[in-house]
What we know:
Radius of gyration: 15 Å
Largest sheet: 5 strands, parallel
Order of helices and strands: EHEHHEHEHHEH
Structural class: alpha/beta
Strand content: 5-15%
Helix content: 40-55%
Number of strands: 5
Amino acid sequence: MSDIAARTIWLTGLPCSGKSTLAAAVGQRLAAMGQVARVLDGDDLRRGLASDLGFAPRDRTENIRRTAEVARLFNEVGIPVIAALVSPSRDDREMARRIVGPARFVEVYLSAPLDVCERRDTKGMYARARRGEIREFTGVDAPYEAPLAPAVAIDSGILSLDLSVERVLSAAAAQASDTD
């Protein structure tokens, strides 16, 4: 498989669609191949870099902007990034693409259906949102705009984790060979 150095693999999808799981698995696979990579997980970022942000649209945009800036910095020194964020707005993902650079940005859409995401929700976030305890929760009372032309779409409700990792790395390698 081709080297994917200096790329940002941007995983997007509904909450509990499998972004964090896939990001960790891609990072582990790259490490096993001898390639250093950095995972930027939305939950982790919200405990530190974005701890001052909420979930209103303006805060979501700022969270994505900060993540894209960090990804760009890693990419500039040759380190691939796997970013796992809901990033529900097409405009916000396009902003991230511009910040990282279109040639380095690999958009991956985890298209698991809402019912699959709700079944996976071990934190009970969907149930709380449906009861009105959480406002502006993506997939319940806040929209998610699916990508129109992602590098790859993965239904994580059907596709195995290993096959998902293969598809992500293949898409990243294909994009790298097209732009290098």
